[in-house]
Amino acid sequence: MADPAAGAPGDEVTSSSDSPGVTSSDGVHDAAAAADGSDDAAAPDGSEGDVPEVAEAPPAGEQPAKEQVVGPTGFPRLETETVEKFGRPMRLFPVAVSAEAMALAWANQEDAPSGATVVVDHEIRPSGLHGRMWNVPAVDTLACSVVLRPALKMEDADSSWLVGAWAAAEGAEKASGRELATWWPDAVVDATTREQVSAVRAEIQLGPGRVKSVVLTLRFDLPGLGLDASRKDDLLEAVMQAMDTAREELDGGTIGAVYEQRCALLGNRLMIRLLPKGETRGTARRIDRGARLELESPSGLVEKITVDQVRDMKIV
Hints:
Number of strands: 13
Distance between the termini: 52 Å
CATH architecture of the largest domain: 2-Layer Sandwich
Order of helices and strands: HEEHEEHEEEEHHEEEEE
Strand content: 25-35%
CATH topology of the largest domain: BirA Bifunctional Protein, domain 2
Shape: globular
Oligomer: single chain
Radius of gyration: 29 Å
């Protein structure tokens, strides 16, 4: 698309610069001046030659504008401050595309350490599993993303989903005082009403034969937890503490077991619509350490369903 500032085709483009080799405001190009660097304009004292430009001082009380740092894309690079909070490096943004996007950039471009956390007050595109949007207003949401660098084999990479969901449930329960449960694969619900109060997403980056990094994104419905915006920091601190415990469970190979203890989905008969197509039915029996749901058919046949296979599901 043409730049509107460039003018319509055929319009005369002018410049306010009288420097050699630049078209002047009257459209005339001085070839001789461009060749020898001379300028016909006289200096204020009557002498010939270029008049040095004097930068205007900023108005009293104002600081000079900072020079923008331009990134490789040609756009100004965002100056980001990293603070130490709740025992981890943290970056806080009033607005961003998403917490996940900012954490991924930190992890991939700046080698963010395990535990590094991003908090965004207003996400432009808060998407979760398979692009599902988080529909709670930003003012009622706590959105954060945590970088992990777990020692995981590729086949166990999806266990990261369990880490995020368990930490979300554990931390939110501590901060709110409400009994919460996990709801495989990506939700946390009120244990009594089964209303969703949190959603989790894991973005897994793979290296040669191993997991390179994971960005876990957690979003919380503050009113759903009975919390107002003034309790965001309390909730964030509780979730960060729970995340540290969940990482220890992951390292110890016990994350599947502790997740199962909180999972309200188990024991229910389900109908699951699959990706790219098809559906399956059975009773949810257990979650293995790779975050696969074991679904048992009436004949006793057990089918393992991965996180990426689930389009949607319902209790039948």
